[in-house]
Give the backbone structure.
Amino acid sequence: MRLGRRLADVLSLSWRKAPPPLAVTGDELADLEPRLIASGAWGLVAWRVRGSALEKTPAGQRLLNLYRHQVMANALRETKIAEVFRTLHAAGVEPLLGKGWAIARSYPETGLRPSGDIDLYVRRAEHPRARAVLSGEARHVVDLHEGIAELDDRDEAGVFERARLVTVAATPVRILSPEDHLRLVTLHALRHGLIRPLWLCDVAVLLETLPGNFGWADFLAGSPARTGWAVAALHLAGTLLGASQAAVPGEWRVREQPAWLAPAVLAEWGAGRIPQGMRAPMLRALGRPRAFVHGLFLRWPNPVEATVGLGLSLGTWPPVPAQLAECARRAGLFGARLAHHLVLAKKR
């Protein structure tokens, strides 16, 4: 947990226009550098390094070079976003953009955060058409979602109606409303166990840049359990990273969170596990005992993942029973996939 705490310290308030100077030595920054790069948070630390004595250290120079590369990569990504939207518009599909670039635009500079995949959300009825028209490079850079899983406890039509129109490379692009986007970002981060500290920085910057007319009733609407998770993410952004809680309604700002929550997240940051989407499928490890055991280790759910995976309100179950129950649930799902895989193999 000590390493997780150090990562929280160097990322604290890093999303602000004038973040506080880093209180670390060049050697300490070098020790944290691999984890910062793996987490995607190097741009935020480079932002705090600029103009300080750390700028001239080897680690500081490497982080700043990565940041400059990220600025250029994000500019290219904007061009690709515009191209993809034009392609889908021509096919009569109106997607919504979320996460990635849609979050990066809330930072003082978009280069502070990697854009990653282009996360597009389309109405379920339009998904087959959207998938059919995306080809070539677009097929690889677009993460096309059928509906909006994190927001399926609210009316899909309402989510699309609340969306906002922005311009990207002279192309009209619709992004999720601030209320829907903040809820989606918090729920996505918790569903993945808040493995990456960058995801909590995203929550923090969105929380501190809310528009004056932000509708808290819209943000809080939906499943009570999910609302509790979303509010917990806001609390964590304050507890671990120093994000202001002034905008959070009083009754939710003072809501008590489980004692294990913040330590569990810091322990996860210190462990530096690979996020779900980057792990090799378990089916590939069949017949390879060491790879299979390693895969199981990577998939041991932390208490946050377990609680969310089971659909429980935070604090309903103690961590270990929830983790064991989530393991059992996942084992059942894997067993079903394995049986399907074996059936297909026999037919070949």
Q: What stands out?
A: The chain has 17 helices and five strands. Residues 280-348 form one domain.
